[in-house]
Design a protein that fits this description.
Blueprint lengths: L1 H21 L7 H10 L1 H12 L7 H4 L5 E4 L2 E4 L2 E3 L2 H11 L6 H9 L2 E2 L3 H11 L1 H6 L20 E7 L7 E7 L5 E6 L4 H15 L4 E4 L8 H6 L3 E3 L9 H19 L4 H9 L13
Parallel strand pairs: 3-4, 5-8, 8-9
Antiparallel strand pairs: 1-2, 2-3, 5-6, 6-7
């Protein structure tokens, strides 16, 4: 009976050693992890707790998984994953991040073989501080929201944008009234600041001067010439078109109209002017067949 118990114990120890070897990251040696684990204060306490069965001195961050922990020599495992000592955690994280993998992929790589407390937050810290990843990644945190105060009269606060180029090389300049949602459009073949100013003069001659105009940061709309033309000019934050959402929504409406018109073989310019709701008497183009 004693011999059978010893055989079972040897089999269990052999299995744990196999698991420990399989859980070692390919770029490291099991002996290196064992050497570092021997000097790690936290893992020394964990090994002591496993031997004595007394978990009073166990660090809080390990208590929730204490039933999953085991030790073989100086190594500590959680299930089938190696518990990495603190001195090797940064190195192991960088190995998993090799090739500039994203946060999700880096975490997936680590979770297959290793574990330590707060591993996910350590991965996020490394990925967010990686210069290469920051260089090519898109901004994910939106700008702080500041609601626009709604105007009390029409044609007081407006927004404008350039859309294009169209397949024929034309551009569309659209301006929308924040109060009534009414918008006006002009089709241009040249989009310099001087051209935009001419269009604005034509629009204000029809509707009057607004108090403010909000645009994106296009070079025609932020030039010295255009800024000198306006008394109050607001621009949306770079890479955040949602801040000028009213005109962006009108752009979607116009694009939808033009796609349908193209599919039906009709004149998109004619339909665009109709979409903007302009008066026939002020747009001779509408009389053209």
């Amino acid at each position: 009976m004693k011999e059978t118990n010893e055989q079972n114990q040897d089999s269990a120890e052999g299995y744990v050693r196999y698991v420990a070897t399989a859980a070692t990251p390919n770029a490291l040696k099991t002996s290196d992890i064992e050497h570092k684990s021997e000097d790690d204060e936290e893992l020394r306490i964990i090994r002591s707790c496993l031997r004595t069965g007394n978990w009073d001195k166990c660090p809080t961050k390990y208590k929730g998984v204490r039933n999953e922990l085991c030790a073989i020599g100086k190594l500590v495992l959680r299930g089938c994953r190696m518990v990495i000592p603190e001195s090797l955690r940064e190195q192991v994280t960088h190995l998993a991040h090799e090739g500039h993998q994203g946060m999700v992929k880096t975490k997936q790589r680590l979770r297959t073989k290793v574990w330590w407390p707060h591993m996910d937050s350590d991965v996020e810290k490394v990925c967010k501080s990686c210069c290469g990843c920051q260089l090519v990644s898109k901004p994910s945190v939106p700008e702080p929201m500041k609601r626009t105060v709604l105007p009390t009269q029409s044609w007081r606060h407006t927004a404008a944008d350039l859309l294009g180029p169209m397949p024929g090389g034309e551009y569309i300049f659209a301006i929308v009234d924040h109060y009534s949602r009414y918008f006006d459009v002009e089709i241009l073949t040249s989009v310099t600041s001087a051209d935009i100013i001419k269009v604005c003069n034509k629009i204000v001659a029809t509707h009057g001067y607004p108090i403010s105009l909000k645009t994106d940061n296009g070079r025609q709309l932020t030039s010295q010439e255009f800024e000198a033309y306006l008394d109050e000019h607001k621009t949306s934050p770079p890479f955040w078109p949602e801040a000028n959402g009213e005109i962006e929504r009108k752009n979607r409406t116009m694009l939808k109209t033009m796609r349908i018109t193209a599919a039906e073989g009709r004149d998109w310019k004619f339909e665009l002017y109709k979409c903007s709701g302009l008066n026939l008497s002020t747009n001779p183009y509408l009389f053209l067949g």
